[in-house]
Design brief:
Helices cover 6% and strands 52% of the residues. It contains six helices and 37 strands. The protein has a 22-stranded antiparallel barrel. A five-stranded mixed β-sheet has the order 3-9-10-7-8. A three-stranded antiparallel β-sheet has the order 4-5-6, with no helix packed on it. Strand 7 and strand 8 form a beta hairpin.
């Protein structure tokens, strides 16, 4: 999302704002526009191949309060509805456990429970989010089946103004329709070789009402988050950074948070606590040379979900899951005349503990289910430019092993490869083609299922793989750009846990049918004077097994259909104001005749409008007041990442929030 161009610099001057605020955004956007080629100066342009980059400037402009808000202008990324703890990210229809997901380099767990979100993160802590869609590079990490998602948090150097040694930021907000009070308090500074940051955030609201005015249970925001960072930067350029972060949601939630009801059950609230704790130690250099540009990351991550209040004859309500993982990455980039070559190694170890309760003798433990896994990988990725030709190509080898709950041990190794070739067609166009084959190992799927039964492993259970293909064309000039791409992604032999069915198929860990997603991605953006208009659209067709038999069970693949986003940003210099509007559209989701006979229900189309105004009183750079309205016309709709309706299973999609008016202020000092 690039919403400022060179011609907005005069607007920034007219506003009287300092370079660190508006001019910095302008310079960054201009730099990004100049780097529209797929591979340039040894760097890969994620957006040029259909990916997503949400910068710090984008986050400041959008002020998202949950995961859905982060990606509100990106049609290729869908998010499920409901409370933030229920929001799961889907890229081109695939759930994010099919991607390599990291927070500050720390690998995040896959799907713990398909009715809960995978990653609990407060957007106010973030400075950048990257989404590689499709063919991911070798250094994106292990098991990047359909891409990668990278969340990066801010540090003191990001927030300090030039010449400032100590600073702080206060951000307060209030919103109607359940949003309630949001706050973020931070202090940061720099002394000699050390820099430090302490940040805390809180969201406290109530259940929202949908567009029909009906209260949606279990959606009240109750997120508490804290982060501390300590950096040491030596004169020789060596930089060490320690990050400690925790996000906690502790509130009554429905049994299945990402759907309104299932099996005819009436939604009832149960106590639930979700906690993500992450620690990273990162080493880089600020004085990279031709042969020395390293990155070393040591990380630890713990994700807990606790719902300990047992209820008789309700085995889906009561279990605790603790997921602990740790690992490291060490790589170095070598500069060559044509670009850059990165080589490295990474490893991870994961332990999962599921505590179960008896469904008849309430509050009596059934015992613990334990599983563990380890992964070791080595990789290399080259990003090169030869005149009009650009090439990004790499490979990695991984060994993956798991000890499963039934006592079985599985292990295997595999090679992953990727290549992207681009060619400049004149001065204003570039075509590219990309392909990858990825070894996933043994997917860790749905550990939350273990609360209900023991699972055995199929004799022919094997590691999963993925294939990606993409071809595209980008057009660009001084004030505009556009792109179109076709993609085809297939996930082969995905892990499934058969929770239903009869005979030997019930309670079996095995490989499921192929999952595939194919379609088109389009984008365009034009800027002039004080205004920027942009759009992107994604047309996705998904299938499971043979075509036209889509049955989205467990949320691994959702029929997101055709979606689009249109946004406008306009600066009013005389008022020291920036105005923004976003339109999100989703077309009608139509199922095949086969799916309809099993109970699936077509989802209607929707169009949602959000608007905001940001004002700097008297042009002050240290104070910003913001007024925003989400779902301006109070539509009733369902996020495309939510479960589709199914009459046979009595599944009702969870509705999104109706209209919400929000006001907030940010003061930096």
């Amino acid at each position: 999302m690039k919403t400022f161009q060179l011609n907005t610099l005069c607007a920034a001057m007219a506003l009287g704002l300092s370079a660190p605020v508006w001019a910095q955004q302008t310079e960054q956007a201009v730099h990004e526009l100049e780097q529209v080629t797929v591979i340039s100066n040894g760097e890969e342009q994620i957006e040029a191949t259909g990916g997503v980059v949400v910068t710090r400037e984008d986050l400041e402009r959008l002020q998202p309060r949950d995961t859905a808000g982060i990606f509100q202008r990106e049609s290729g990324v869908s998010v499920s509805g409901g409370a933030q703890v229920a929001q799961r990210v889907y890229v081109l229809g695939f759930e994010q456990s099919m991607l390599a997901v990291t927070v500050d380099g720390a690998r995040q767990p896959g799907t713990t429970w398909h009715h809960a979100g995978n990653i609990l993160v407060d957007p106010s802590f973030l400075k950048r989010v990257e989404v590689e869609a499709g063919a991911a590079a070798a250094d994106a990490g292990f098991a990047a089946a359909v891409g990668a998602v990278r969340y990066e948090t801010v540090n003191a150097l990001d927030l300090l103004q030039p010449g400032q040694t100590v600073g702080g930021r206060v951000r307060l907000g209030y919103g109607s329709n359940g949003v309630g009070v949001t706050s973020n308090l931070s202090a940061y500074g720099k002394s000699g070789l050390l820099d430090w940051l302490v940040m805390g955030a809180r969201q406290n609201g109530s259940n929202y009402e949908d567009g029909n005015g009906v209260e949606t249970l279990g959606t009240a925001p109750k997120l508490s988050a804290g982060m501390a960072k300590l950096g040491l930067q030596l004169p020789q350029g060596h930089r060490y950074e320690l990050t400690l972060e925790q996000n906690r949601d502790d509130a009554p939630r429905t049994t299945r948070m990402n759907m309104d009801s299932s099996g005819g059950r009436v939604n009832t609230l149960y106590p639930l606590e979700l906690v993500r704790s992450t620690a990273t130690l990162r080493y880089t250099t600020t004085q990279a040379s031709q042969y020395y540009d390293p990155e070393v990351v040591l990380w630890y991550n713990k994700s807990d979900m606790e719902r300990p209040n047992a209820v008789a004859n309700a085995n889906s309500t009561d279990f605790n899951v603790w997921d602990k993982s740790w690992g490291f990455k060490a790589q170095n980039a070598f500069r060559v005349d044509a670009g850059k070559i990165t080589v490295g190694v990474d490893s991870s170890w994961t332990d999962v503990d599921v505590e179960r309760y008896d469904t008849t003798n309430v509050n009596t433990q059934k015992g613990h289910i334990l599983e563990d896994a380890k992964q070791h990988g080595v990789y290399a990725q080259a990003r090169l430019r030869y005149g009009a030709f650009g090439l990004s190509a790499g490979a990695r080898y991984d060994h993956h092993a798991m000890n499963l709950q039934d006592g079985k041990r599985v292990s295997d190794g595999g090679v992953s490869g990727n290549a992207t070739l681009s060619y400049l067609v004149g001065e204003h166009a570039e075509a590219y083609v990309a392909a990858s084959r990825t070894f996933l190992g043994y997917q860790w799927s749905q550990t939350g299922y273990y609360h209900a039964r023991n699972y055995t492993t199929a004799p022919d259970y094997k590691a999963s793989t993925a294939q990606n293909r993409k071809v595209g064309l980008n057009l660009f000039a001084d004030s505009w750009k556009a792109g179109v791409a076709y993609f085809n992604t297939r996930l082969l032999d995905p892990t499934i846990l058969n929770a239903s069915g009869g005979g030997t198929s019930r309670g079996l860990r095995t490989n499921g049918p192929r999952l595939s997603s194919k379609g088109w991605m389009l984008n365009a953006q034009y800027s002039w004077k004080y205004t920027t208009v942009g759009m992107n659209a994604t047309l996705v067709k998904v299938s499971k097994g043979s075509p036209n038999t889509v049955e989205p069970d467990g949320g691994d693949l959702m029929p997101v259909g055709n979606t689009a986003s249109l946004f406008v940003d306009h600066v009013v210099p005389a008022w020291n104001t920036r105005l923004s509007a976003t339109l999100r559209y989703a077309g009608k989701t139509e199922f095949s005749d086969t799916a309809l006979t099993t109970g699936f229900v077509d989802q209607p189309s929707y169009s949602i409008v959000g608007v905001s105004a940001e004002w700097n009183p008297s042009g002050r750079k240290d104070l910003t007041v913001r007024l925003g309205v989400e779902n301006l016309f109070d539509r009733n709709y369902y996020y495309r990442g939510s479960y589709p309706g199914n009459l046979g299973r009595k599944v009702v999609p969870i509705p999104a929030s109706g209209r919400s008016v929000q006001v907030g202020a940010t003061w930096t000092f």
